[in-house]
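Section 5.1 Outputs to date
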Amino acid sequence: MANMNQKSISPEKFEFVNMNTRLTDVKFDDKPIGYFKDAWIRFRKSKAAVVATGIIILIFLFSLTAPLFTRNEATFMDTYYAKKGPYINGLREIGIADGSVRRDFSEMGLIAKIAIGMGAEDWEGTGKVTLEQGMESEYQPIRKVSDPFIQMDAAKREKKYYHGRIDAYAEVGFIYKSIEQPELQRMLDWEKETGLHLLYPLIEDNEWNPEPKSANYWFKCKKYQPVFVSEDGKTKNVVYKPGMTLDDNYKRDADGNAIKWEYTGGGSFETAHIKVRVLYRNYYIYQNNFEPEYIFGTDSQGYDLMLRLAGGLRLSLLLAVSVSVINFIIGAFYGSIEGFYGGLVDLLMERLSDILSGVPFIIVATLFQIHLATKVGAVPCLIFAYVLNGWIGIAYRVRTQFYRFKKQEFVLAAKTLGARDMRLIWKHIFPNSLGTIVTSTALIIPSVIFTESMLSYLGIVKLGSATTTSLGTLLADASAIWTNYPHLMILPALFISLLMISFNLFGNGLRDAFNPSLRNVED
């Protein structure tokens, strides 16, 4: 009966709706995304992590390429130019990176500094150079001087002072050198070849020379006060004013000519020692064949600060990355065995970890430096100290993750299908722990950099030498003098801060990128 009521409809009566119309332009990509590609996609979404990565790369490149931007060697040290600020020849004429510092001068002090430029223009020893000629000299250390102001001194007397800026490099002025006879001839030949003046008149060691060891007091002084001496022996103080000249105190021969060198000892032409007075900037050029230039200035000993920073960064990064990799390998292996097998194996291995974790790091580092540094070096000792118990934190996190995942269905399924222990550990469980492990490893890097800087700063680890230094050593050297030379403290502290912040942000980005629970999940 039911079959009799059924009606058949012919296929021609059916019509497809929107058969030729595209409902959407969206293309679905059914190709699976690899684990690391997916992690990279998620990592790029963290702008802070990407910026931090860029900063880390720039710092790393700086540490490698810094020697290309200076003619100085990393081991080159110039004590006369120690603790000076940035000095770039191409910019100093416009007042940028010119090595100058602000300073207040008494009238006596101002005249003494201006006299360096005046003396540099008086290579013939005439003693007739005026204030204006000295101020126009390229060797003049005074860059700027204000109108005078009156201030009370310690004895409650009114004294005249000046605000000003002084070129700390040009302030070196003149120095005495003891050279051999052949060297004197080379200096004379160099003067003719370059047209620069190197040798200057010697200064008399008499009552008008307040500091015989200094080569800058070429003018007559009485208790450091520049004076004029009349024929009857009366003195008159020099006053800072336009047209000012100074009464020279040069050594002269019987004819009144200034003496530029004198014999001080030696038995032959080759061994004879000659005392000369040289303008230090030109002497620097004579020795090195290039003008002094320090992009970041110089450190407390006279090394190029840019090269010292680059060397310190290389050491810190190499040490931190080495420690992180070693701790990652040891911690991952140790924690995997603990967490996978559990039971008695876990109990015994945990007790060993507890014993090692109870050893204070600073005690280990100190003992290693005392007893092993002379044999294997300070850096290997420091690595040993970091590795002794530095892997324990990673091992603990790996162990925790293994306890979390080893009872999951996908692990039990793989085990049922006959997967061996090593495959279960490294193929199925360990990748799920990778995010936490990588984050912990990345965060070890700033921790190592900070700890190494602290140990160097405290003097526990000795990393300061002509060939090796660290950021902590640079900070330690600047700790007592940074108020007068702030760049010595600011630059190392800035690099340490950038490394600490950047690696922390980088580690957070890695944590999110390698978290399997976020895989293929769009924001």
